[in-house]
Amino acid sequence: MIPAVFVEDIRRMSVENSLASSYLRCTQCKKQLPDSMNCEIHGANNGKKVYGAQIIFADPCHKLEVAVWEDCLKAMCQEFGVDDIDDESALPNLLVALRAQELCIRASFGINKAGTSMYLDVFDVSPQVNDAGAQAIFKHLANDTFVGAPGIVPACCKRFASNSLGQTVVKVDELEHVVDSIHLVCKTTDKPKMEALPAIDGINVKPSAECMKCNATCVLQTAGAPDSVQDFMTTLKNSFVAILSSSIDSNGALQVAHHRTIPEAEAQIFTKSNKYQAEQFVMHMKIPRSEKMSKKRRTVIEELCLSQRTPKRLKIANTLDGDAL
Ligand SMILES: [Zn+2]
Ligand SMILES: [Zn+2]
Ligand SMILES: [Zn+2]
What we know:
Layout: E1 2-12, E2 22-25, E3 38-39, E4 43-44, E5 48-58, E6 63-69, H1 70-79, H2 90-98, E7 103-111, E8 118-127, H3 132-138, E9 152-154, E10 160-162, E11 168-172, E12 175-178, E13 181-188, E14 193-197, E15 202-206, E16 208-211, E17 217-224, H4 226-233, E18 240-248, E19 254-262, H5 264-286, H6 291-306
Parallel strand pairs: 9-13, 17-19
Antiparallel strand pairs: 1-5, 1-7, 2-5, 3-4, 5-6, 7-8, 10-11, 11-12, 13-16, 13-18, 14-15, 15-17, 16-17, 18-19
The chain binds zinc ion (3 copies).
């Protein structure tokens, strides 16, 4: 189970643009059929419909592109309010619904039948936070789950900076961690101010907000065409919002790439969770890990990945001290 994950992007699998969330494959060789319904090897074929999408997930350290198949994709659509999976707009709508949504994904790691490569199979995606098990597991994020590009980090506004290379970083004393964006929960303290941007025929929306981690006042900012920032313009005073911010400008305003208003009833648990995660991440950055230690850890992970195991559905249970099993 991997907590504190965001969806960065969703891409269709269909090579030819027939139906976005599914494609037809040859019933014999499983290769994707072109619109002509002729398999290169097996000729005319009625095909079998396969639902799937490439989803790019981002955890606090990295990004990872994973194929998500029928059951999981259908369940995601249902969970996040996308009614018709066969509609052309299903995947784009799903992305909008998921973009600033903190998720918990259940995945199994394993090795393919041929023994030639590793796989990561996502079988469940659900909104996170209220799950005590997910929170407990966050402690163990010191083991980076994903590999590759920078990810999305829970952090307080004060930890957010640009380094000398112009990269967006989370800063803890002298330490820097390059990020794609930070995840922050704040509460709006007044109605957004608006400025017209004649050059791009758009508007700049600037609500003031209180960072729920450090209680400092911070200025949020989002600019764009009126319809793209409309939702932000109408945010009421004293609303709780989860934001993903990918940069901070020279005046200290946080550029909001995506946001989501948190329902009042969930605000407290979200705030608590974000605070806890931000603290854990600071610890993750501070704890010096010796070469020996990380080597040992790596060996353990590699051995785990190489051992043949049938993927099982993980069950999360709490022990007395609140840790997850
Ligand atoms: Zn074929
Ligand atoms: Zn890391
Ligand atoms: Zn803060």
